[in-house]
Design goal:
Blueprint lengths: L1 E5 L10 H5 L6 E4 L12 H13 L3 E6 L5 H5 L4 H17 L4 E4 L11 E5 L5 E6 H5 L3 H10 L11 H4 L2 H8 L4 H22 L2 E4 L18 H10 L5 E6 H5 L6 H10 L3 E6 L2 E5 L2 E4 L11 H10 L5 E4 L17 H20 L6
Parallel strand pairs: 1-2, 1-12, 2-3, 3-4, 4-7, 7-8, 8-9, 9-12
Antiparallel strand pairs: 5-6, 6-11, 10-11
Helix pairs in contact: 4-9, 12-13, 13-14
Bound molecules: D-mannose and manganese (II) ion.
D-mannose binds next to strand 4.
Length: 361
């Protein structure tokens, strides 16, 4: 297991790499080229510059989150072939720079969605909050507007401006795309990129939909064990794998996260772990909480034990944290709570390792 930490780059992230390096046990940075428009090829030189910056700080760069997928690919438009070609070129450049795991998602229009980026919790910290009823009464444009301004002047990562500017047009195009069509479009995409990924030694890791159900009537398919099983079968290659996000999938209590880790891990298709806890007030209403085992609905101990038992050697990162100790910055991506999370998760790992006699089950 390589304990990792997401970093948005020198231009976008207020947290310096030298502070991340001081978190005990964190060795690997998860990052991306955030300034390249979605669909364009990532130049090798730019990837190398990012890698050099990270390595100069004493950390490693082997995991990318995310190379986003152009909307034309998700929609299955004829223009998709050009973007798939660019994606292949990006994967080759990433591999040449030593990147081993590439995370992506296949959510139409939106990446992750919340209704409040700074809900105040009883202890005075703030967390990301999702309330299904609020979404039902909201026009997508209004949500986009709110997200654009975000909390503390920051907007949600993964919400590319140019894509969201065309939101109404996109919604009209998605009227033709149901879940089956989206599966077919994912298959076409995977058939286009997986042979290249496999040949150049990159493992693709699809991130689950967050939340794992339809939002604004748009189809969502990366939501459940059965659908993940179908996805890894769309192209039968070890390069066609998963980024298992406990908090994203865990918002649906039918998803048994430790069982999924064991199942897909045994298949050799689990390439990246996002670990975080959530509190579910009632179905469709949840918020993020501390990573501690008893802080929410998911047992972080059982999650880490499952990773340990499958002998996981890939990257694991703490996911969205709360904003604590007066810290300001990108909601969910402050330093303090994620650093506590990294150390706590690593502590669980060490204890599991030592009490199992260092042997993995
Ligand atoms: C949010 C993240 C997502 C994730 C993408 C992966 O913090 O978990 O934005 O990075 O969906 O492509
Ligand atoms: Mn995640």
């Amino acid at each position: 297991m390589q304990m990792s930490f997401r970093w948005y780059g020198e231009k976008n992230d207020s947290i310096p790499l030298r502070h991340i390096r001081q978190i005990p046990g964190v060795t690997n940075i998860v990052s991306a080229l955030y300034l390249i428009p979605v669909g364009e090829t990532w130049p090798y030189e730019d990837i190398l510059a990012l890698k050099n910056t990270i390595e100069a700080a004493g950390l490693t760069f082997k995991t990318v989150e995310s190379v986003n997928v152009h909307e034309d690919i998700k929609l299955g438009l004829p223009t998709r072939d050009r973007y798939i070609e660019n994606y292949r070129a990006t994967l080759k450049n990433l591999a040449r720079a030593g990147v081993e795991v590439v995370c992506y998602n296949f959510m139409p229009v939106f990446d992750w969605v919340r209704t409040d980026l700074a809900k105040v919790l009883p202890d005075g910290s703030t967390a990301l909050f999702y309330e299904e009823d609020k979404i039902r009464g909201l026009k997508p444009e209004i949500l986009v507007e709110q997200m654009e301004h975000g909390a503390n002047g920051f907007k949600l990562p993964g919400w590319e401006k140019e894509r969201l500017a065309h939101i109404k047009k996109l919604f009209a195009l998605y009227k033709e795309v149901d879940e089956e069509k989206l599966f077919a479009n994912l298959k076409y995409f995977l058939e286009g990129i997986i042979p290249t990924a496999e040949a150049c030694g990159v493992k693709m890791a699809i991130h689950p939909d967050d939340p794992p159900w339809q939002v604004f009537g748009l189809p969502r398919i990366v939501t459940s064990r059965a659908n993940l099983q179908r996805i890894v079968g769309l192209v039968d290659s070890p390069a066609n794998g998963l980024a298992l996000c406990s908090g994203a999938l865990g918002a649906d209590l039918d998803n048994d996260i430790p069982a999924m880790i064991r199942h897909f891990g045994a298949m050799g298709r689990l390439h990246f772990g996002h670990v975080r806890n959530i509190i579910i007030d009632r179905p469709g209403v949840f918020h993020e909480t501390a990573h501690k085992d008893d802080a929410g609905a998911l047992s972080m101990f059982e999650v880490m034990k499952a990773y340990h038992d499958i002998g996981f050697t890939g990257p694991i990162r703490p996911d969205h944290g709360r904003m604590i100790w007066g810290e300001e910055g990108m909601p969910g991506y402050g330093l303090y709570d994620r650093a506590l999370g990294a150390v706590y998760l690593h502590g669980l790992w060490d204890a599991i390792e030592k009490t199992s006699g260092g042997k993995q089950a």
